[in-house]
Design goal:
Layout lengths: L1 E8 L8 E8 L4 E5 L6 H9 L4 E8 L2 E2 L5 H6 L2 E4 L11 H7 L8 H11 L1 H5 L10 H13 L5 E5 L7 H18 L3 E5 L2 H7 L2 E6 L1 E7 L6 H8 L8 H5 L3
Parallel strand pairs: 3-8, 3-9, 6-7, 7-8
Antiparallel strand pairs: 1-2, 1-4, 4-5, 9-10
Bound molecules: adenosine-5'-diphosphate and magnesium ion.
Adenosine-5'-diphosphate binds next to α1.
Length: about 250
């Protein structure tokens, strides 16, 4: 179980960007945080992985506190963050992209890489090719694969839908749900893309500095309501704002 209680964080200038964020994510489940550009999604994930300092709050994985640990120590505890943008090394092969994440190469290096290929057969086929030649969807798989080689106990995903066609968004969403289930780990997905989020999430929240939600079960099918929350006005929001999100 991945648990966050009252997490607030910002950049030391003015008010916190996120405030009082509280969520639990169970193994096997995808929880989605929806938010517009600038809502604080990346700040939230960075605060979880330790790249941005928190001003208050607790972070626990399987009952152990992580919030006082460095980013690297959090990874060693199993909290793995796949950052915004793919950050793949375009000139390196697919396999070398996976290998660089393993550092000095332990005994299990081969096993860990093969495990990623088992999840993403398309990457196995292209293991010797330059990563820059992969399709957008495959590059996103590689970015997630680089998280998987680290044997995550919780996966944080920052906007994997960016730059993908609607078809690939749907495929990536399915893959993410499947990973959460087969690895039986909590997955926290932050997204601007409502279609992806509502397709994959067991629970969804809207982030507007603080979290609104959770939306569960039938509520997830009520796209209009979630969309209205998402664009900031609640159910009675001005339709013009819906048409021109800031
Ligand atoms: N390094 C930074 N220093 C100061 N402010 C930042 C920094 N990064 C992001 N912000 C601010 O924090 C807010 C949330 O940004 P971000 O977390 O990137 O949102 P999102 O990922 O939802 O688009 C924005 O107002 C942004 O300008
Ligand atoms: Mg972001």
């Amino acid at each position: 179980m991945f648990e966050v209680h009252g997490l607030s964080a910002g950049y030391g200038t003015g008010a916190d960007v996120i405030s009082g964020v509280t969520i639990d994510v169970s193994p096997g489940e995808v929880t989605c945080i929806l938010g517009l550009n600038g809502a604080g999604k990346t700040t939230m994930l960075n605060a979880l992985s330790g790249l941005v300092a928190r001003s208050s709050g607790e972070i626990e994985l399987d009952g152990s506190r992580l919030d006082h640990l460095t980013p690297v120590e959090r990874v060693h505890q199993g909290l793995v963050h796949v950052p915004e943008g793919r950050h793949i090394f375009r000139r390196l092969s697919v396999e070398d992209n996976l290998r660089v994440c393993l550092g000095r190469g332990g005994r299990n290096e081969r096993d860990q890489i093969e495990r990623v290929y088992a999840h993403f057969p398309a990457l196995a086929e292209k293991r010797r090719r330059a990563a820059g030649g992969l399709s957008g969807g495959q590059q996103q798989m590689l970015a997630i694969g680089r998280g998987l080689v680290l044997s995550p106990k919780t996966l944080l995903l920052d906007e994997p839908s960016v730059g993908l066609s609607p078809m690939l968004v749907a495929e990536t969403a399915e893959k993410i749900a499947e990973l959460a289930e087969t690895l039986h780990i909590p997955v926290l997905l932050v997204e601007q893309n409502l279609d992806m989020a509502l397709k994959v999430a067991r629970r969804a929240y809207v982030l507007r500095r603080e979290l609104v939600g959770p939306f569960v079960d039938d509520e997830l099918a009520d796209r209009d309501r979630i969309q209205a929350m998402y664009f900031g006005g609640g159910p009675a929001s001005d339709p013009e704002r819906l048409a021109t999100p800031s």
